[in-house]
Amino acid sequence: MKRTTLAFMAAGFGSRFGGGVKQIEPVGPNGEVLMEYAVHDALQAGFDRVVFIIRRDIEQMFRDGVGRRVEKKCDVEYVYQDLADVPQGIALPEGRKKPWGTGHAVLACRKVIHEPFCVLNADDYYGAEAFRQIHGYISADARDERKLDCCMAGYVLGNTLSESGAVTRGICKVDADGKLDEIRETRGILLRDGRPCVEAEDGVRELDGGEAVSMNIWGLPASFIGYLEEQFPRFLERLSGDDVTSEFLLPSIVSRLIRSGEGSVQVLPTHDKWFGMTYALDKANTQQRIRALIAQGAYPDRL
């Protein structure tokens, strides 16, 4: 079996969460954080290594809050997403405060990931099915590592909404072979009278709820990091001098990859229900959902 790595993007600031480091908020009955349930599912699926992408200012808190427990279960590496990590000769825009987004987070792993990997958000619950599907895809012996043959878990929109407020989802157009044609970032999706709706310029538009959506969990070959190394300088060169907010985001990078014909993305359907820690109000719901999963036997009481 090929070695496979799970990479958590855990350097975010969580502005909608209302302070604190939401990635290490305890939600399990023994103080477990949401990432630990993903680690449990991923190790069961066959992953054998974890990389945490964090900020240096939360390193000690992160190691104490989750890292040391995960280190007892598998190999662990830490890498740091840093605003100043840009190609030589490129100046930082004056006034830029935050790093460059999810693509930049993956790029921070370039010295430690040399095998197929799954990258995901640190503050979302994905369910076991996604890890089984992604691991099976990226670890297949016939997979050519030189090709940008990627995959993603495709969730059902109706299974991914928050009762605490509006969310952004990547609504996917998928072809007859299950390949991703297009991913459209859609902001302001919320539940209204139990139905998913989106706030548009011409009013509120109701959605079907069965649309395939990306929840930012990707299965990628090691060669994808080389693609990021090519694309990141180009992204920076396209920015205007006063742009201090644009981000180098995985959905945009993947869309460019597909349009150029340089790679493809297989959408792997999953029917697990997402929940996460977008808003402070989500914590109580997350704790309740974890308790329910333990009662159903999906997880032991103590991971």
What does this structure look like?
27% of the residues lie in helices and 27% in strands. The chain has seven helices and 13 strands. Helix 1 links the parallel strand 1 and strand 2 (49-54).
SSE topology:
Elements: E1 5-9, H1 34-45, E2 49-54, H2 59-71, E3 75-80, H3 102-107, E4 117-121, E5 124-125, H4 128-138, E6 148-156, E7 167-174, E8 180-192, E9 195-200, E10 203-206, E11 212-220, H5 223-238, H6 250-260, E12 263-269, E13 275-276, H7 282-295
Parallel strand pairs: 1-2, 1-4, 2-3, 6-12
Antiparallel strand pairs: 4-11, 5-13, 6-11, 7-8, 7-11, 8-9, 9-10
Helix pairs in contact: 1-4
Element-by-element helix/strand order: EHEHEHEEHEEEEEEHHEEH
Largest sheet: 11 strands, mixed
* Percent of residues in helices: 25-40%
> What's the helix count?
7
Query: Judging from the principal axes of the Cα atoms, what is the shape?
Result: globular
Mean residue pLDDT: 92
Through-space gap between termini: 25 Å
- Poorly predicted segments: none
By DSSP, the count of extended strands is 13
What Rg do the Cα atoms give? 19 Å
Estimated share of beta-strand residues: 25-35%
Broad structural category:
alpha/beta
